[in-house]
Amino acid sequence: MTDATSGSWPTGGPSAATPGTVTLTDLLRVPMHRLRLVGAAALVGLLAALGYVLLVPAAVTANAVVAVRPVVTDAFTPSGAGADRAVNMNVESGIATGTEVVQRLADAAGGHPRDVRGALEVEVPTGGQILRFTYQAGDAQRAVQSANLAAQAYLDVRRAMYEQQRAEMLRSYDASITKVAAQQAALQKRASTVKGTAAGDAVVAELAGINNQLTQLNSARTEIAAVDVNPGWVTQTAEKSLVTSAGHRPLYLVAGLLGGALIGIVLAYAWESTDRRVRSVADGRDASGLPLLGTVRRPALRGSPRAVDADVRYVAMAVAERVRPPARVALLSTREDATALTAGLAVALAADGRDVFVADDSGRADRLRATVLADRGRLPIDPSRPLVPKPRPAGSPPTATAGGEAAAPRRPSPHPPGARPSTDADATLTIPRVSPARPDNGRVVDPDEVSVGVGSVRFGTWRQGADHGLVLFNAPPAESDERGVAVARQGSAVVIVERDRTRQSDLRRLVERLRAAGVTPLGFVLTRNGRA
Predict the structure, then answer these.
(1) For residue 377, what are the β-bridge partners?
(2) 3-state DSSP assignment of residue 298
(3) Among 20, 497, 131, residue whose Cα is nearest residue 288
(4) Which among 188, 289, 275 has a CA at the least distance from the CA of 515?
(5) Rounded distance, CA 308 to CA 151, Å?
(6) Element spanning 193, H or E
(7) Cβ contacts of residue 372 below 8 Å, gap of 6+?
(8) 477 exposure class (CB count in 10 Å sphere: 0-12, 13-18, 19+)
(9) pLDDT digits (tens, 9 = 90+) for 427-473
(10) Could you read off the pLDDT of 33-45 as tens digits, one per residue?
């Protein structure tokens, strides 16, 4: 066997070049190739959200607003610029969500304080003296009652705290007033005994000071007793008409779908990093270091395979350029089935007048024959040959014989051979001759041979094709069978790479095995025709 070498095809990988720019298409290529994984993750997220919507009861929210006021001695005094600082709203918010308020709600609703604390929320607007009580419950009635009860409980607790503080201050003033009054009574009794003397004048002066102190204490106690300890008012009560749903339930489905899709995309990138597939010609060239013989594109429409057949014929021309008969070409793949491409190459090579022998030792001869017959019917029609013979003009004389006379029409015998038995004992029996199958071009065709154009395609095992000029070996997957590499040692090899299916690690391993066995592959074919 003699292989033609061509210098126009590089045998190594691509030369060092600057890395290409990563585009949005490159980022979307991995999720698109792992679309099943992304779709499954999105479906799981959607089902999880749907289960949450159906199983978890819907919660409603009720709001009540309380205006907090500072406790002042004169309620009619106008507030200054720092009125919002008169009340520490952080402290008020802590009291509103404190243990006493939560316990009152739990006692009224009959629930656990932990559940009440989780359902109650108090918001404090920035720069304002407003507390917004928000309560979530399973029904509107309970949410409204709990929100109003929380606001009223806060006011009651805060009022009790102010009243207790006022009572303590009044008690302190009462004790001071009682003590000063006792001093006043003692001085009055003393002043009556030393009246008109110098000591009496001193006692009178001291009594005047005690009276002044007692007056101040009574005035201060009166102001404390008149302080309004009201901590605020409920400016907006919760009502059923103002109850809102706690979140939009349909948005949970959208969030579940998008969240699942996002997780699926992350999983797709993680899977792609561990299981790299050949996605393009550049990936195949980088993984194998072999030249490209051609690409077999997948047809846009299932019923229109013209583009695939044309690509196969281009690959056949590239293979024919590199081999000379007698040639043995093994079509190798890693884990995929190359039967469809083998049959297509056989048809394309035979259509140019070659006698191609397709060898297969894996029991796929019937599939090869069926595919060859199907591909033969789609061969382009040669316009130089008429499809049917030209009709003979009317009135033309019949075909003359060698003697120049017209051949007389043959009259059929009334007794065809074998119609009646012969009475002669020495008569021989005439057996009609079975003519071999003849195609349209008149060439005798063997039963194991398929005529394709002006060439032919035969089928058999590898041993049966030993005496043929051009043999295509439909090798089994190289990852599980070594016969393809063994056959390639006797000739050459063409590596079949299935786009989006062939793993780059498997392709590297196959090329390393070929080179270790002393085989220099002709190149690789990138295919995804949807039939293999």
Answers:
(1) none
(2) coil
(3) 497
(4) 289
(5) 76
(6) helix 140-193
(7) 343, 346, 347, 358, 450, 452, 457
(8) middle
(9) 554 444 444 444 544 454 455 778 887 788 888 888 887 778 888 89
(10) 788 888 999 999 9
